[in-house]
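Appendix C reproduces, verbatim, an entry submitted by the partner laboratory led by Prof. M.T., so that reviewers can inspect both the input and the predicted structure.
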Amino acid sequence: MRQVCIILVLLFFVQNVSGQILHGRITDSFNTQPLNGVVLVNQATNQSTTTDADGNFTIPAQYANIISATFPGFNTRLFTANPNIFMNVAMVQLNVKMDEFVLKGYTRYQKDSAEMSELFSKDLNTKTLKPKVTFDGGIGVSGLIGSAVQKMSKSYKDNKRFKSNFKNDMEQKFIDTRYTQVLVNSLTGLTADTLVSFMNTYPMAYEFARAGTDLEMKMWIRDNFKEWKKGSLK
C-alpha cells in the first residue's frame, strides 16, 4: 500500500511540476547588444521573468514549451524552449529597415522601461519554490511544504500581484506611445473631455498597438469614430 501511495505521489508531481530551467540571453538582432528588461512568458504555465542588464534570463520550462519575449519597440518573439542548451535569442526592432540598414535608435520609452525593469529586477525575478522528486536512496519529494507555505504567504501574493501590475503598466505605457491624443485629434477633431471620453470608450489592445501599422491604426481610429458619431446622434 505504501509503495502504491509513493507511486501516485510521484506521478502527480511528474505531471504537474516543471523541474527544468531554461537559460538564455536576449540580444538586439541589428547590433547584437543585450536587451535589459525583456519580459518572457512561458505560454504553457504563464510563468514570467525579465532579462538582466546582460540580457540573460532563467525561466522554468519543459522541452517544446513556447516562450514569448516582448520588449517595447521590438517585434514580439516566440521561440521553442530547450532546457538542454543555452539559448541565444535575437529580437528585431520595429523601426529597423533591414534593406537600408537604417536604425533610429532606442526611444525614450525603451530606456525608461529598461530602467524600471532594472530597478525592480529583484521583485520581477523572484522564483517560486518547486517541489522536486528525487530517486537517491529511494523515491522522495522535497520542497513540498515550503512550496505550499510560500504560495499561502502574503509576500508571495503581493509579489505575484506586483508582477501582473508591472506587466500591465508597461503594456499600457507602450500603447500610449502610439495611441496618442495628438493622433486622435488630428483624425477626429475631438478635443478636451470629449477626446478623453472617446479614447476611454475605445481602448486599444496591446497586441494591436505592437503589430498594427500606422495606416491600420488610423483606419481603426476612423472606424471607431464613425461608431462614436452614430451613438452621439441617438
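The first strand starts at residue 21 and ends at 28. Additional entries are available on request from the coordinating office.
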